[in-house]
Each structure stands twice: as structure tokens, then as C-alpha cells.
Amino acid sequence: MVNNISGADVPQEQKAGWASFIKSLAQMTGDLSSMTAPPFILSPTSLTEFPAYWCEHPDLFASISEGATDKERMERVLKWFIGTLSAQYTTRNEKMGSEKKPLNPVLGELFYGVWPDINGRGETRLIVEQVSHHPPIEHSYIENQKAGVKLQGHSGQKTSFTGTAINVKQSGHAILTVQPKNGQKEEKYLITLPKLRIEGIIWGSPYIELTDTNAIQSSTGYTAQIDYKGKGYFTGKTHSFKAAITAGNKTVQTYEGQWTGKSFIGGSKSHLFLDTTGPKEEVSVKNVEQQTEWESRKLWVNVAKGIRTGNYDEAGKDKTRIENEQRQRRKDEAAGNTTWSHLHFDHVDSDPDYQMLSALLHDKLTPAHEDAYVFKENTRDIVGRQA
């Protein structure tokens, strides 16, 4: 297939570069995250901003704690989670015509945002920090104090090329903490991350399909398993999924449909579960002029401007400057025998919440232990790193 590169959707002036990129993919072994992509598939957005996609339906996030029973709250968690997928994995297609490679964040990069209190749902805050560069890992904290719901987690990616598609294995996990409004005991939910397959590479029009399975495990004992398939499976449509909530060995309820569209309780002819085609609420962020130097949009402002305007030479120059500064900072740390200090999160070798919940999950593919990053509560109101 690589020898038949058509690049049908690649701009004419970049076809040679695209062909070279595809051939490089085919020859690459190991992780692809460090590869430099052709300019026309670069996104003007840093990967540090991506955790905002977890909450572009803030009403669903806030309403989890209003469930009257632990079963109803589990269903609300599943609904909120399915509602995050379209924003996370298809937004670039909607806005830019195809999937785009995000900018690789620098170590220590920060992103802050908020969804305001509307109709009494409470304000939802987001804090993201790039906690590792090799491998790239960002950690995020999302909280609605009024609703009694908070989420924190980290993710990294390992990528490989199979000849026609890029496969992405996501590492990490998220822990959702819910204080039910009816006064019942606090609940925790482990969320594992799905695998991705980026199709359409040889045509120059990449798009994402989710593959395999991920799970949500509640401290109450309920488990949700979500199975993903692309076109030709289940409904014969792209972005299809089936999910089941179980208690022990008993299936409580099933759901199916498209995570980019409508899904239904029990089957396609049953009651509507979720419709993700409606408007999303993008996170509110301070203007670039008001941001500190380590915040994503301030850091990458010239690179993003160059990508958006097609001035890839200028974008490339500033991108190189930022990357060279990072390399020098690491050299200085090595020479001074110092290490980088995280602003908002502490690294822990083993996450007790993860251990407890993964033991309940009984998933052979889920490691018994996984490291994590824990939010520093005393940094809640700190914005930006001091120079």
C-alpha cells in the first residue's frame, strides 16, 4: 500500500513532502511521537489543551452527583464519558477538514480554563500541566465544587504504523470522584483509556476510529464496558460502540449507537440515551495578552498564527526556537544536577485509588499497579509559573 501513495487530499505543492513522510512512517520502528509531520496536517493547538474536551458538556459532568441511586449515577457517568468522545477525537475533522497532529507540549507547559456557572450548575475549573516530555504525558484536574464532582488523570501515547493506519495505544487513567447530592457515601470511578486507529493516512485526510475496549469501574461495584468498532460492524456505521453496565456477573443495562451521534438504551429502536450532535461548550480561557509565559496559547502564539495563516516558515522557526530552549534547559539541569519541579502535581509510584478500583475491574489487560500524579490542593489558586 505504501508504494501506491495517492495523497488525493494533499495540497499539490506538498505532495512530495507528504510522500516522503509516508515512506518515513513505513521505515520507522518504535514510537512515532517524535516524528515531524508535514505542515499542512499540523494543528495550531498544543496537546496540553486536549483535556478540555473532557468537559465540553459541563451540564452532564455536573449532573452526575444528582443521580438518586448508585446505579443511576453509574449510568450518568457513562453518559458523560460517551459525550466526551466526539469532542476529543473528531473536533479537528469538523473544524479543519481532517485530523491534525497537535503540537508536542514542552515540559512544564500549563493550560487553565473554566466553564462558568450557568443555571446553578456550578463553575467547573480545569488545570493542566505537562508533567513529562519523554514520553509526553499531561496531567489534568477538573472540578465543580458546587456539584461535588472532580476528575484527575494523566495520559500518554505510544504510536506505531501498520502500512495503512497509525495505531495509538493510550497509557494512563483517570479517577472520577463524586459526592452524591443525596448524602450517600463518596464514590470513585476508574476510567481506562481506549485505543485509537488513525485511518486515511495515505489519502492525506486522517481521521480517528476508536478500537477495542475501555472500562469504567465504580467503587460501588458497578462496571461499564465500552466496545468500539468502525464501519462494517454492529450498525455498519463509523464511530460505533456498544456498552454494558454490569453488577457482578449480571448485566444491568446495555447501550449502543454512535459516539459521534445518537445512541440508545438497549438497542437502536429503543429509548434515546444520548445525542452528541448538539452544541458543545468550549472552555473559556484568558486572552493571550493576559496569560503567563508558560501557558499554552502564550507559548505557541506565533507557531499557531503561522499554521493558521499558512506561513509555515515562520511557524517552523518559532517552533524550533521553543524546542531548542527546552533542550538547553535540560542540559542546564543535567550540568547543575537539578531536576524539573512540577507546579500543580506530585508524582506517586502507585495510586491507591487505581489499585482498589482495578482490583474490582478484574480486567486481565489492566495492570494491577500504575503510577499517577496527585493534585496539590495548595496550588488551586496559583496561575502560572514564576520565571
Determine the fraction of residues in helical runs and give it as a percent range.
10-25%
Q: Which descriptor suits the 3D outline?
A: globular
Task: State the CATH architecture.
Answer: Beta Barrel
Largest beta-sheet details: 13 strands, antiparallel
Order of helices and strands: HEHHEEEEEEEEEEEEEEHHHEHE
- The overall number of domains is 1
Based on helices, strands and strand pairing, what is the structural class? alpha+beta
Question: Unreliable stretches, pLDDT < 50, 5 or more residues?
Answer: 1-8
What does this structure look like?
The chain has 387 residues and is α+β, with helices and mostly antiparallel strands. It has a single domain (27-386), classed as Beta Barrel (Porin). Helix content is 24%, strand content 31%. Helix 5 (301-309) packs antiparallel against helix 6 (312-336). 37% of the residues are buried.
